[in-house]
Amino acid sequence: MDHLWQVAADRVFSAAVISTSQNKRRNLETGNEAVETVREEAVKRCESDAVLPPGSVKAWPKSPGHERGSHRSVYQDWS
User: Is residue 2 part of a domain?
Assistant: First the structure.
């Protein structure tokens, strides 16, 4: 009987791990969509408020921090 309880506990644990990883993946996808939505709204607001000329904001990279040279700081150019 103990063996059956162990098998049942293992299956419940496995199901919980799978469910958790699926939820994390879903949350990441939802988060990425939210970031894109916020970015699009920011572009529209900047252009509509005439803060920047139309089209200039869209040149921003889609994933800030991953573009080439993004790790460089202004302070590193002092030499």
Answer: no
Where in the sequence is the domain holding 46, given as residue range(s)?
25-55
Per residue in 17-50, pLDDT (tens digit) is 777 777 777 777 777 787 788 878 877 776 666 5
Contact 39, 45 (CB under 8 A): no
pTM above 0.85, yes or no: no
Is 7 part of a structural domain of the chain? no
Q: Which of 66, 16, 51, 57 is nearest to 38 (CA)?
A: 57
SS3 state at 59: helix
- Are the CB atoms for 43 and 58 separated by under 8 Å? yes
Domain count, the chain: 1
User: Angle CA(62)–CA(74)–CA(50) in degrees, nearest 5?
Assistant: 50
Distance CA 55, CA 40 (A): 12
